[in-house]
Protein 1
Amino acid sequence: MRLRDKVALITGAGSGIGRESALLFASEGASVVAVDVNDEMGGETVALIESSGGKAIYTHADVSKAADCKQMVRAAEETFGGLHVLFNNAGIMHSRDDDALSTEEDVWDLTMAINLKGVFLGCKHGIPALRRAGGGSIINTASFVAVLGAATAQIAYTASKGGVLAMTRELAVIHARENIRVNALCPGPLRTELLMKFLDTEAKKQRRLVHIPMGRFGEAHEIAKAALFLASDESSFITGTDFLVDGGITAAYVTPE
Ligand code: NAD
C-alpha cells in the first residue's frame, strides 16, 4: 500500500479528479478527508470508499473561505490524528469565462477566489498541520493552460492556473527544508463534467481535440494515478515541478492525423 498510515485531504472530492483520487488514495491505505461544497456528491464519495472497506469522512468547505479551510484541516487532525497529504484540487471553469473583452469582472473574481485564493488558503491553513506531522506532500491542481495558450478563450481560468503554478514553485522552495514537498499537477483536457460543460458543442470539442497528439480527452482516473505518485514517498525528491499529464498537448506543434 503506497499511502499506508497517511491522512490525505482532497478538495473538490465530490467529482472528477478529486473523487477518483479519493477512491484511489483510500485503496492505497490513506484515511481520506473528502472536501466539497456539493454535500450530496461529497457524501457519495465517502460512501463509495466505505463500501470498499476504506476510511473517509466528508467535510463541507468552500475553499475560497478562510474559516472553511481552517475547519477542514481541523477535521483531518481531529478525526484521523494528523495531515500528511494536502491535495488542493477544487476548481471551476465558468461558462461566461471568455476573452479579455467580454469576460465580466464577477466571473474573474469568482474564478480567482476559488482557483487561486482557494489554493493559497489551503496552504495557509494546511502547512501548519503538515509541519506538526513532520512533513508531507502538497499537490496543487493547475492545468496545461498555465504553460500553453488555450485555443478556446478562458482568460480568468488561464490566469488563475498560471498563478497556481507560480505560487507552487515558491511554496516548494520556501518549505523544502521542512520536509514539505509542493508540486503542481497540470492535467490536459479531460472528459470530465467541468470541461464538457465548457466545450458544449461538438465544434468546440473538436477544436480542442485537434491539438492533442493522442487524439482523445484524458480520464480523471489517469490524473488520479499521477496525484498518487506525487502524494506518495515514491516522489520523495520531486518538489516545485509542473507535473504535466496531458496526452502530449504541450509537446506538440502540429499533431499527426
Ligand atoms: P469537476 O467539476 O468534476 O470537480 C470539481 C469539484 O470541485 C466539484 O465536486 C465541485 O463541487 C467542487 N468545487 C467547486 N467549487 C468549490 C469550492 N469553492 N470549494 C470546494 N469545492 C468546490 O472538475 P475536475 O475536472 O475534476 O477538476 C478538478 C481540478 O482539475 C480543477 O482545479 C480543474 O481546474 C482542474 N483541471 C481540470 C481539467 C479538465 O479538463 N477537466 C483540466 C485541467 C485542470
Protein 2
Amino acid sequence: MSILVVGSVALDSVETPFGKRERALGGSATFFSFSASFFDRVNLVGVVGEDFPPEYVELLRSRGIDTRGLATLPGETFHWVGSYRYDMGQAVTHSTCLNVFERFQPEIPAEYRESGHLFLANIDPELQMDVLRRIERPRLVACDTMNFWIEGKRDALIELLGSVDVIILNDAEARQLTGQPNLVRAAKAIMEWGPEEVVIKKGEHGALLFGADSIFVAPAYPLEHIIDPTGAGDTFAGGFVGHLARAGKRDWKTMCRAAIYGSVMASFCVEDFSLDRMKTLTEEEISFRYREFIRLSRID
Ligand code: AMP
C-alpha cells in the first residue's frame, strides 16, 4: 500500500521573530510527503515552474518520495509570503502568487492509482474534488484546507466533505468554516457534512480528534525553541495519515495513536525553517519522542 498526496509544492518566503528565509522549499504536499515518508511509500502529485531548484526535487527523492507526478510547467512556481508574530500562533499571509498553480490540472500517473490512502492537501477544493472523481476510491480519503479557500470556495469545499473520511484543519479554520465558535460544536457540524472523523489542530495546545461518539486530546510537545511553524499542519497530517497507512487499520485506538504521531512529526518541523530539521530526522528520534508524548500525559 502507499499514500497519494495532491497539493501545493511551493517556494516560501517566511519571516519569524527568529529569522527569515527567501524562496525556501515549502508547500502543503511537500511538508506532508516528507513527514509521511517516515511511515509508508508516498506518491506526490503537484506542479512547479521552471524556476524550481532541482536540488529541492532531489531532497524529496532522497526520502524515497515518488515525484513522477510532479509536473513542471512554463512559468514560475507557486510563491507564498508570510510572517509570524511573537506568539507564532497564526501565519499572516502577505501574498499568495498562484503562478503555475493557476493552470494546475492534476494528472495521476497510472502507477499511483492503487494508492490505498489519499491526502488532498491544501489546494482549491474544486481540484480536490476533481482528483477524487478521477481515481478509484482509496481505502481512506483525508483532506485539509485553509482560510484562503474557505473564503473563496466555501460551497465547493462543503461539497467535497461529502466524499471525505477525515478532515484535518486548525481551530481558526474550523470556526470560520462553520461559523461556530465552540470547537466541539464546530466538529459536529463538520461531521454532518460527511467526514467520520475531524481533527482540529490547536498549534501549541495540541490537537483534538473527534469521532462519532468519542473525543481524544493529543498534546503538543512543550518545545523550548520554536523557529518557524510553517508546514506544521501538513507535517501533522503526514504523521497522522502515515501511521494509519502503516497500521493498515482505522479503529479508534489506531486513530488516537495517529494523532500522537501527527503531533510528534509537527514538533520536529517547527524546530527550524522549511524542511531543515526534518532533513536530519531519524526513526530513532521519532520513536523516542513518541514515547515522551505518552509519558507527558500519563499519571501512573
Ligand atoms: P501549514 O502546514 O498550514 O503551515 O501550511 C504551510 C504551507 O502552505 C506553506 O508551505 C505554503 O506554501 C502553503 N500554502 C499557503 N497558502 C496556500 C494556498 N492558498 N494553497 C495551497 N498551499 C498554500
